Amino acid sequence: MSQLGSITAEKEKQMDLERQRFQEVKAKMLAQQKYKRAARTAGHIVLNIVVALIVLLPLLYAVSIAFMPSGELFTLDMNILPKHPTLENFRQALQKVPLVRFVVNSFLVAGLITFGQIISCSLAAFSFSFLDFKGKNVLFMMIPGEATIISNYLTVSGWNWLDSYQVLIVPYLTSAMGIFLFRQFYLTFPISLYESAKIDGCSNLRFIWQILMPLTKSAMGAMAVYTFINAWNMYMWPLLVTGSDKMRTVQIGIGMLDSVDSQSITLMIAGVVLIILPSISIFIAGQKQLIRGMFSGAVKG
Q1: Counting beta carbons within 10 angstroms of the beta carbon of residue 68, is it exposed (0 to 12), middle (13 to 18) or buried (19 or more)?
Q2: E strand or H helix that includes residue 199
Q3: What's the CA gap between 23 and 232, in Å, rounded?
Q4: Under a CB-based contact definition with an 8 Å cutoff, are residues 257 and 268 in contact?
Q5: Rounded CA gap, 66 and 157, in Å?
Q6: Burial class of residue 174 in the structure, from the number of CB atoms within 10 Å of its CB (0-12 exposed, 13-18 middle, 19+ buried)
Q7: Residue 182 CA to chain centroid, in angstroms?
Q8: Which one, of 189, 69, 68, lies nearest residue 125 by Cα?
Q9: Can you tell me whether residue 214 is helix, strand or coil?
Q10: Which one-letter DSSP state was computed for residue 242?
Q11: How open is the CA angle 164-179-247, to the nearest 5 degrees?
Q12: How far apart are the first and last CA of the chain?
């Protein structure tokens, strides 16, 4: 019995030793996996920071030039950061060209165009998605805006709309891109949703307002960000139809700033920094909504 007990005790010791070794090996493997995961995460963060710096380098350098005196820029030295930062470039930019007026015009025009396109494009997309009429597939064609710019100009000039707010806003109150975006999103809804609403006595406008719009907030957000940035960056159309400082937008204002003092690059860059801040702020605030809305209608089911 004593020999049997000693053999059993030895086996238990061996089993305990094996358990300890197993636990040590398991702990080492977990530590290695944790270290590899941490190293991979750190590598991804470093890579993202490097790529971000490369992508943002032109913008960061433009901001640096905006605060840099002209004497520091036109030297043989590589001045990346201003040695004597100054706000004089911004002050001169605001004095030589009425940038504040241009910014107000751009905000007004871009805001009204955004609101108008959301309303008109959602109504048109509803017709193409839920209503059945002849020629629906033929009418659903996207025509580039550049192809109609001459005919639009001749039309608005005949109406004596030149150099006014309506000539900047009305031709862009709808867009093929917006109709396409809303239509692709509406196609993800079953037609039975519309049929059930009609059976309950719901009109088309009430169906759009109370059912479709609450369900398409992501698409509306994406459309708002996309449309506002495009309207803010318009150059060709405002250049053609405006002739006074009272109606010009920021993109035309930057061109004027370049012609006023073509020798002062720092002055022009300061003006550029002033006008890109609103569009960058809106893009940063709505980028998640933009991405979500662009991809929400891409997958059905």
Answers
A1: buried
A2: helix 191-199
A3: 63
A4: yes
A5: 39
A6: middle
A7: 17
A8: 189
A9: helix
A10: -
A11: 15
A12: 72
Q: What is the dihedral of CA 32, 33, 36, 42, to 10 degrees?
A: -120
Tokens 């064609």 sit at which residue? 141
- Give the HSE-up count for residue 205: Cα atoms under 13 Å, Cβ half-sphere: 2
Neighbours of 126 (CB within 10 A): 20
Q: Which of 117, 143, 141, 146 is nearest to 222 (CA)?
A: 117
Tokens of 172: 């862009």
Return the structure tokens found at 194.
Answer: 């519309």
Give dist(CA 188, CA 205) in Å, integer. 19
For the chain, what is the radius of gyration of the CA atoms?
31
Show the tokens assigned to 35. 């270290």
Helix (H, G, I), strand (E, B) or coil at 202: coil
Helices (H), the chain: 2-66, 70-73, 88-96, 99-130, 136-139, 149-158, 165-169, 176-186, 191-199, 204-207, 213-215, 217-232, 236-241, 250-260, 265-296
**What does DSSP assign to residue 43?**
H
Q: How far apart are CA 84 and CA 69, in angstroms?
A: 7
CA dist., res. 232 & res. 212, Å (int): 28
Tens digit of pLDDT at every position of the chain (301 positions): 555 556 666 666 777 777 777 787 778 888 888 888 888 889 899 999 999 889 888 888 888 988 888 778 777 677 788 888 888 888 888 888 888 899 999 999 999 999 999 999 999 889 888 888 776 666 666 566 667 788 889 999 999 999 999 999 999 998 888 888 888 888 888 888 888 888 888 888 889 888 888 888 888 888 888 899 899 989 889 999 998 888 999 888 887 776 655 557 888 888 888 888 888 888 787 777 666 665 655 444 4
Say if residues 234 and 251 touch (Cβ distance below 8 Å): yes
Q: Give the span between the Cα atoms of 295 and 71, in whole angstroms.
A: 49
Q: Are 223 and 64 in contact (CB under 8 A)?
A: no
How many H-runs (helices) and E-runs (strands) does the chain carry?
15, 0
Strands (E) in 108-221, as ranges, are none
